[in-house]
Design goal:
9 helices
């Protein structure tokens, strides 16, 4: 069995079957080679950062992204998040704008590091967890998507009353395995500048999320 994966213990337990699959072994070999011969983001120690900061038992909300950022010092293992001191990416600028109109208060948007969300139970999950420098999509179709599809299904099957926030067609296709009878699924356009005005702005995902959490006797997220 392939078990040489350093990941937060509660996640390792529920994902043990995936780690023993042939596709995952091939994926790990591919990723190791990529880090040896190319510049790859995020730094290797942050590949599973989303799981480290949001243990399986603590997940309340899932936000699905696609690829890590592929510029220097941007990606930190959390979807839509960038490291401190990095200029806010356009999608995150729009996310912060929607928070302010939706919740009615300023966000801490002098930085784009979303660790505070992750520590409150927001799993910021990219479909692909690594990417080659300046080559968007370069690690797609290598096995990551199968792995993260399994994560979404495990969350849907094993937990109740989660909120899944699916921005854009890609995330919504990935969310087809979610049981909408036991979870809240919020769908809208993607926050990128290309689509934000086509249904992202005004979609109120953050207040919807908090209302659902409160209704189910959970603490709301401080966005």
């Amino acid at each position: 069995m392939f078990v040489d994966v350093k990941i937060e213990p509660s996640w390792k337990k529920v994902l043990e079957k995936e780690f023993s699959e042939k596709y995952f072994e091939s994926l790990v070999e591919f990723v190791k080679e990529e880090y040896k011969k190319s510049t790859v983001y995020p730094m290797a120690k942050f590949i599973f950062n989303a799981f480290e900061l949001t243990p399986f038992d603590k997940v309340k909300v899932v936000i699905l992204g696609q690829d890590p950022y592929h510029g220097p010092n941007q990606a930190n293992g959390l979807a839509f998040s960038v490291n401190n001191e990095i200029k806010l990416p356009p999608s995150l600028v729009n996310i912060y704008k929607e928070i302010e109109t939706d919740i009615g208060q300023k966000t801490n948007n002098n930085h784009g590091n979303l660790e505070s969300w992750a520590k409150q139970g927001v799993l910021l999950l990219n479909a692909t967890l690594t990417v080659r420098s300046n080559q968007a999509g370069s690690h797609q179709n290598k096995g990551w998507e199968k792995f993260t599809d399994a994560i979404v299904k495990i969350l849907s099957d094993k937990k109740e009353n989660l909120v899944f926030i699916l921005w854009g067609n890609y995330a919504q296709k990935k969310g087809v395995v979610i049981n909408e009878n036991k979870h809240l699924v919020i769908k809208s356009a993607h926050p990128s500048p290309l689509s934000a005005y086509n249904g992202f702005f005004g979609s109120k995902p953050f207040s919807q999320t908090n209302a659902y959490l409160i209704f189910n006797n959970q603490d709301p997220i401080i966005w």
